[in-house]
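CHAIN AND CONFORMATION:
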Amino acid sequence: MKTKILFLGLALSLFTISCNKDKESNDFSADEAGVNAKIDLANDDVSDVVEAQFNATMDNSTSGKSLETAATATTNLPSCATVTRVPAFGTAPTVGQTVTKTVDFGTTGCPMPNGNILKGQIIISFVYQPTATSHTINYQFVNFYHNAIKFDGNKTFTRTMSVATAASPSHPIVVMTMDLTATFPDGRVFNRVGTRTREIVEGYGTPAILIDNIYHVTGSWTTTFPNTTVQTSTITTPLVVKMSCINVNKPLLVQGVITFVRNGNTATLDYGNGDCDNLAVFTINGNSYTIVIGN
C-alpha cells in the first residue's frame, strides 16, 4: 500500500498535479477528504457549544438548583467568549417560554481549548420545558468562522432522552439536521445537507465534568462541491469524539470511518484507533494518504 503524508495547506496543489496525470476515480483527492474533515471538525465543536448552552440552562434553572448566570453559562468556554440570554441571566424562564442565547466569540479570533479558532456568533433558541423528554434546539450563525472557514445556514437539534436499561442509564441522543454552507479562505464554497446523530456513551453521569465525555456519531449527508459535483458521505463505522483530547490540544474526533461515494466511485476516511492525534487516513483504489486535520 502506498502512503503519503500531506499537510492540508499543500494538498490542493499537490493533488492537482496528481489528478491531472491519472484522473484517479473522477478526481477524488485527499484535499477534498480534508475539506470534509474540516467541516466535520467544525460540526463537532459547534455541537459541543450548543449542547453545553442548552444543558447550562436546564441544569441551573430547574427546581432546587441555582439560577443560571453568565458565569455558569461560560464554564466550558474560553474567557474570550461571552454569552447573553433572553430572558436575562438571573431571571428564571417560565415553562413554555422561548430562551435565546447568543454565544459571541468576537471578531479577532477566540482560541478554543482544543486549539481551534472561532470568530463571530452562534445564536441558540429553544422552548424551556424542563420535564420534557424531547427538545428541539435551533441555532444559526452570524459572521461565524471556524479556523478561517465561514459557515452560514441554520441547523436544528432534536434532543431525546433514551429509555434506561439494565446496561445503560437514560442519556441524551441528539439528531442534528444540517443545511449549511462552508466558504473556505481560497473562495471555494461547499454545501452540506443531511443528518448526524450524536449519543453520549461515557461521562453523562458527571455533568459538571466535560473532559470525561465520549460520544458516538452516526449519519449521512450530501456535499455539493464548487464544480457542482455531488458526493454522498455515510459514517460506516461510528465516529468517536473524545473530549479528553482537549488536554493535549488535539482534535476531538479520534476514531471511526466515513465512506464517500461519487459517480459510482468509493473512498474512505479513517480517523484512527482512538489516540488523541490530528491525523486521518484517506484511501482510494488501494492508495492511502495521511492527512493532517485541525488548526
Notes: The CA atoms of residues 88 and 149 lie 31 Å apart.
